[in-house]
Write a structure and sequence with these properties.
The protein is α/β, with parallel strands linked by helices and 375 residues long. The protein contains twelve helices and twelve strands.
Length: 375
């Protein structure tokens, strides 16, 4: 029996609860499709940092590297200054494990209501592919005369052909497996150097994918078009900062952060990829059972796809989507059950759900992702 070894970082706030709920669905999928999952819990996050003053050390990195994939719940705590855990743990893992591509699906599932008028499951199924290690997130910069009226802050943005090509190549492969449409998003009318580099890379990679149509939309214009006409887009490829902003806008269009999943993908397979919901640690509701575990379950489905378990990924996606369609509210005390109960409903549904109930599996991101990185 094939076995997948998963590193589990529950993290802070609601992270441990939604991760446990997602793992229930993963184990149900493993039982249905005949493989095994072994998990190792890692004590990383705010509590560990407050004890040691270290967000991530070399020993933890080495141990994480031995696993096939990483499931991350959430990190963040008001006792820790902003940026310490985000940069010291999440960004550090993305860089150390060459997770150069971030994949953010924006799909409205049947029965889930978008807050944006006119958006339906038929016209909302796109993927935002975000370069994951460079841009302004590279972290270079300095501040002169801090805390004075003469303070000057310089924040550097780094764009390389190598990392950009890796993200663009992945996006074209994804588009080729889906509806064969790719959109580059940037601000090349203002950020002329970085923008032109991105455009040059897209034009070069496009020659290897003659069946994929590609166009360009400015980042601000895409913020307008995405909620008004999400069906215009299939795969959007963009830089780190624009991708961060646009994917949260996409989350709103698809029903909220409670249904927003993500993958931090190492496209070369040289280190584990990491899968996480994007809603954060939500310390204000931690321990109340008000967190929707669907985003964690959908992130776990992306993980299964990345491990090559296409059918299991499709089943977990369909199970989470069908439970979402039945929920009176997508977060808070009105969900119709607490975090654990909803996770149990998803896991139970995995055992016999029909993936075609939420649409053609051939069009699912799970199928495309499994074919690219897991096949």
């Amino acid at each position: 029996m094939r076995t997948h070894h998963l590193a589990v970082i529950g993290g802070d706030g609601i992270g441990p609860d939604v991760t446990a709920a997602a793992l229930a669905g993963v184990r149900a999928a493993a039982d249905r499709y005949g493989f095994a999952v072994e998990t190792t819990d890692f004590d990383l996050g705010a509590e560990a940092y407050l004890r040691s003053g270290v967000a991530l050390d070399e020993a933890a990195l080495a141990e994480l590297r031995r696993h096939d994939a990483i499931l991350l719940g959430a990190v963040g705590d008001p006792r820790v200054p902003p940026g310490v855990l985000e940069r010291g743990l999440i960004v550090a893992l993305r860089v150390a494990f060459a997770q150069s591509v971030n994949v953010r699906p924006v799909r409205l599932y049947p029965g889930v209501r978008s807050p944006v008028a006119g958006v339906s499951p038929e016209n909302c199924d796109l993927v935002i592919v975000r370069e994951n290690t460079e841009g302004l997130y590279a972290g270079g910069g300095s501040t002169s005369h801090p805390g004075t009226p003469n303070a000057v802050a310089i924040q550097n943005s780094i764009t390389t052909v190598a990392a950009t090509t890796e993200a663009v190549e992945f996006a074209f492969r994804l588009a080729a497996a889906r509806r064969k449409r790719l959109t580059l998003c940037h601000k090349k009318n203002i950020l002329v150097h970085a923008g032109q580099l991105w455009q040059d890379v897209v034009d070069e990679v496009a020659t290897r994918y003659p069946d994929v149509e590609h166009d360009y939309v400015h980042a601000d214009a895409l913020c307008l078009h995405l909620p008004l006409d999400p069906g215009r887009f299939d795969v959007v490829v963009t830089d780190n900062l624009f991708g961060d902003i646009l994917s949260d806008l996409g989350a709103t269009v698809q029903g909220g952060l409670g249904v927003a999943a993500s993958a931090n993908q190492n496209p070369r397979g040289t280190a584990p990829s990491m899968y996480e919901p994007v809603h954060g640690s939500a310390p204000d509701i931690a321990g109340k059972g008000w967190a929707n575990p669907a985003a964690a379950a959908l992130s776990a489905a992306l993980c299964l796809a990345g491990l090559g378990e296409r059918d299991a990924a499709l089943a977990l996606e369909a199970a989470a989507a069908s439970v979402l369609a039945e929920m009176p509210a997508l977060s808070g005390p009105g969900m119709g059950g607490d975090t654990t109960a909803i996770g149990d409903r998803i896991a139970k549904r995995v055992r016999d759900v029909d993936p075609t109930a939420i649409g053609d599996p051939a069009r699912s991101l799970m199928t495309a992702l499994a074919g690219i990185v897991g096949g």
